[in-house]
């Protein structure tokens, strides 16, 4: 196990990704401790350009853009992590139980999975969000999580099926282990690396889904996220007034977070699949 | 051939079932909102009308389409039978326009924008990807992170920055719309030129983001193939590099062709937000306005159209793969 971690950190891509991510995380955690300004308070005039007091200017509501950016990054990241965790858990449970139990359970579960793989999850996301009239950032995270599990489920099921008849699993079976115990002790460790990578990608796509749904006007209410900042900037035509500070920072923040996550994922992929090392 | 027919039948059955589930979700979800939004909105539409006759007419239209006050399964039957007759209902927000008319006029713009953009970014991305895998030197350090970063910028973020840069700061392209706002769509040269002018920014913003993702995928496939045993064997046989690259390209491009087919399926809903940023008169702007107006028939029409596109593309890929991929052929015979 120790050797494994060494190989992971040998991968330059993983290191760089982790460094960027850690740096962003540090900013998000430390900044609010130093600057206690309320991100939703309108203290300035509309689209004030960046100056000594306002490092990133103000937005269309006259809020401090920098404070908003940090708060938005935090909410977006929480939404991404929560949605990613929910999606990974659902995918894991459905994939493991279908793949290991087989038979009718597997038939039903993989039918449901196949149906929801083909129906675009974005569409279900829109339909559910339209139906919920008051949405907090937690609801948004839940809805994103509940719509983005099918790919994980399919991959986990395929890997479970290939593991199901291995000798060590059979040994556990004849030793009289219970089914949950076999799944957790004998199968889960073999797919843990895949699950970790899937989770990282789900976080990235969760952040992007939040931004997309907010741009459509279906984002969370009474909070600030990176997607909402972009939505406000477009609605109040910041780009037409030349107020680049209202949309460039959130775009870069989204790009940086997803970039660092993707970089970590590529690094891990090269560690676990030696064939694609170059 | 018998086994292929069996494969086809089971695929068709699957896609029909999936489509039914999609239709059901489209029907059910907007109706779950507490407090019957349909009657609320009907009263909102009619609030400006003084004429009792026209208020009555609005009520009758929506009562017929929605089957208000009837049990939910009966409402579903009404919904399905309307769909079969090609009737998606009447728009709330743009009453009395039909949903199908609104969709038909906007889909032309969406396809006109997306089809060329997807194909151009696919071609450029694949060529770059193969080159990157073949050249290798320096790529991993410099180009790979750059491509990855570009593909991580959300397409609409890219779009906003492009509008600001090229339309507002540099003033070399129009900022929004599908044509100049003082024009009426007509087959004249000046209208065509205006469309072409307004086309540039949305087109390139979709293409640039697409190239990033496509080339990364192709690069990975090519590296995988370049390390395969048959390539080593060819090298041992002393085959020319150009011939080996040809083999590699053939093998690596097959999944990419699937990717192209699938992204053509997502064409209808693939650039919704980019269209919103540019106020392009496509499906994205329609959906955005429908959401703002809580126009459920129109929202449901948009989502159903997008889902249908994706389903058809997936179905075609499955059918064609059943014919050409030897591995699926073997599976059919078992």
Indicate the low-confidence ranges of chain A by residue numbers.
none
Write down how many β-strands of chain A occur, each being a DSSP E stretch of 2 or more residues: 0
Order of helices and strands of chain B: HHHHHHHHHHHHHHH
Tell me the distance between the termini of chain A: 24 Å
Beta strand count of chain B: 0
Element-level helix/strand string of chain A: HHHHHHHHHHH
The total of helices of chain B stands at 15
What's the alpha carbon Rg of chain A, rounded to whole Å? 22 Å
Q: Total number of helical segments of chain A?
A: 11
Largest sheet of chain B: none
The protein's oligomeric status is: heterodimer
Characteristics of this structure?
heterodimer; A: 278 residues; mainly alpha; B: 334 residues; 2 domains
What does this entry look like structurally?
The complex is a heterodimer of chains A (278) and B (334). By secondary structure, chain A is mainly alpha-helical. Helices cover 73% and strands 0% of the residues of chain A. In chain A, α3 runs parallel beside α6 (137-147), α9 runs parallel beside α10 (226-235) and α10 runs antiparallel to α11. The longest helix of chain A is centred in the first third of the chain and has 37 residues, at 65-101. The mean pLDDT of chain B is 81. Chain B has 334 residues and is mainly alpha-helical. Chain B has 2 domains: 2-84; 99-333, Orthogonal Bundle (MetI-like fold), CATH 1.10.3720. The longest helix of chain B is centred in the middle third of the chain and has 38 residues, at 189-226. Classes of the chains: A mainly alpha (278), B mainly alpha (334). Chains A and B meet through α4, α5, α9, α10 and α11 of A and α1, α6, α7, α8 and α12 of B.
């Amino acid at each position: 196990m120790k050797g494994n971690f060494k190989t992971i950190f040998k991968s330059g891509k993983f290191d760089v990704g982790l460094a960027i991510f850690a740096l962003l995380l540090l900013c998000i955690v430390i900044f609010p401790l130093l600057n206690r300004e309320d991100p939703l308070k309108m203290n300035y005039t509309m689209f004030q350009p960046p100056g000594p007091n306002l490092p990133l200017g103000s937005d269309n509501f006259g809020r401090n853009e920098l404070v908003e950016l940090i708060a938005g990054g935090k909410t977006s990241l929480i939404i991404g992590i929560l949605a990613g965790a929910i999606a990974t858990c659902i995918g894991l449970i459905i994939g493991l139980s279908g793949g290991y139990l087989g038979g009718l359970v597997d038939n039903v579960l993989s039918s449901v999975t196949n149906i929801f793989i083909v129906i675009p999850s974005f569409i279900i996301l829109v339909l559910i969000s339209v139906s919920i009239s008051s949405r907090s950032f937690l609801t948004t995270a839940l809805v994103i999580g509940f719509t983005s599990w099918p790919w994980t489920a399919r991959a986990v099921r395929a890997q479970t099926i290939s593991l199901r008849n291995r000798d060590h699993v059979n040994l556990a079976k004849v030793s009289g282990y219970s089914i949950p115990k076999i799944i957790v002790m004998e199968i889960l460790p073999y797919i843990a690396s895949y699950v970790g990578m899937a989770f990282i990608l789900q976080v990235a796509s969760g952040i992007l889904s939040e931004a997309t749904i907010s741009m459509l006007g279906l984002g969370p209410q009474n909070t600030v996220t990176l997607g909402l900042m972009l939505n406000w900037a477009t609605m109040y035509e910041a780009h037409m007034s030349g107020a680049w500070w209202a949309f460039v920072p959130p775009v870069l923040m989204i790009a940086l977070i997803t970039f660092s996550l993707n970089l970590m994922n590529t690094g891990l992929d090269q560690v676990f699949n030696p064939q694609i090392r170059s | 051939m018998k086994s292929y027919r069996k494969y086809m039948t089971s695929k068709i059955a699957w896609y029909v079932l999936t489509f039914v589930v999609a239709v059901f979700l489209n029907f059910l979800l907007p109706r779950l909102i507490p407090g019957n939004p349909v009657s609320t909105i009907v009263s909102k539409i009619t609030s400006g009308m003084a004429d009792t006759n026209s208020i009555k007419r609005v009520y009758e239209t929506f009562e017929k389409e929605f089957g208000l006050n009837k049990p939910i399964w009966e409402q579903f039957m009404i919904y399905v039978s309307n769909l079969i007759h090609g009737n998606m209902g009447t728009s709330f927000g743009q009453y009395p326009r039909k949903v199908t008319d609104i969709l038909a006029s906007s889909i032309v713009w969406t396809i006109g924008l997306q089809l060329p953009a997807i194909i151009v970014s696919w071609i450029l991305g694949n060529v770059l990807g193969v080159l990157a895998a073949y050249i290798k030197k320096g790529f991993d350090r410099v180009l790979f992170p750059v491509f990855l970063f570009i593909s991580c910028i959300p397409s609409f973020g890219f779009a906003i920055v492009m509008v600001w840069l090229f339309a507002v700061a540099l003033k070399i392209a129009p900022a929004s719309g599908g044509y100049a706002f003082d024009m009426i769509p007509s087959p004249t040269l000046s209208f065509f030129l205006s469309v072409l002018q307004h086309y540039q920014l949305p087109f390139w913003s979709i293409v640039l983001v697409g190239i990033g993702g496509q080339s990364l995928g192709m690069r990975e496939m090519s590296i995988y193939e370049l390390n395969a045993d048959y390539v080593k064997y060819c090298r041992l046989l002393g085959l020319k590099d150009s011939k080996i690259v040809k083999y590699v390209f053939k093998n690596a491009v097959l999944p990419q062709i699937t990717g192209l087919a699938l992204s053509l399926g997502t064409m209808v809903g693939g650039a919704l937000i980019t269209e919103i940023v540019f106020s392009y008169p496509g499906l994205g702007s329609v959906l955005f306005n429908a959401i703002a107006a809580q126009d459920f028939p129109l929202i449901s029409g948009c989502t159903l159209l997008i889902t249908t596109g994706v389903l058809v593309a997936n179905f075609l890929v499955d059918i064609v793969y059943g014919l050409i991929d030897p591995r699926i052929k073997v599976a059919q015979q078992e």
